[in-house]
């Protein structure tokens, strides 16, 4: 087949469209990138077919290849922003923005709002206000991060209703992103229980070495968790201030929740 497409996957065909969406979903859930072999195994598809699709995505800026790994490209980030806005996160972002700005200014660290991706395989940054310090955590709106070893992801595991949290903890892949990433399911379940009990999550260098994250849940008018508010910065600066920062993050998340109409019993 011309261009490496398998039968039934000609450019523009229904199966080709479905495969592209599957492909982008897999890349979105793997910020570290995936090899062609890993993608072929995950999607149960021929490498030649996927390579043709990946090259097409790369030509339009929706995918990039670095060191034999494929990742989402800058155009995919823009598409993610548009999808978030269309899904109703525009109100969430506009409501949270002043709180993010104030939190980043007062605490001197980067403040972010993260939401669960539609396929529930990753966390996605919906908005951010970076610290003004020279040494800071830099993030891009639309970036995807793993669920199991991020503070924002653990907040979702702790506060979203069943059955998804239990299903994730039972069957999701838990790859290591750093030497301190928690990949043991029992240990992760304990951490999620602690997060639920204390109302916030803390990670120290689990996704990016040297970076600490503190997150708390943001609730909507119906009492459902809709996002996680997070502060991130160098471990050396954040760890000594965890009691203060966690308190401020919880307060700020509560402010956003109230502005969204949440009234806890």
Automatic annotation (TrEMBL):
Organism: Sediminicoccus rosea
Keyword Iron among record annotations: no
Name of the protein described by the UniProt record: IclR family transcriptional regulator
IclR-ED domain boundaries: 75-262
Keywords: DNA-binding, Transcription, Transcription regulation
Domain HTH iclR-type: 14-74
Domain of life where this protein originates: Bacteria
Entry-linked SMART domains: HTH_ICLR
InterPro entries, alphabetized: GAF-like_dom_sf, HTH_MetabolicPath_Reg, Tscrpt_reg_IclR_C, Tscrpt_reg_IclR_N, WH-like_DNA-bd_sf, WH_DNA-bd_sf
Transcription keyword on record: yes
Gene3D superfamilies tied to this protein: 3.30.450.40, Winged helix-like DNA-binding domain superfamily/Winged helix DNA-binding domain
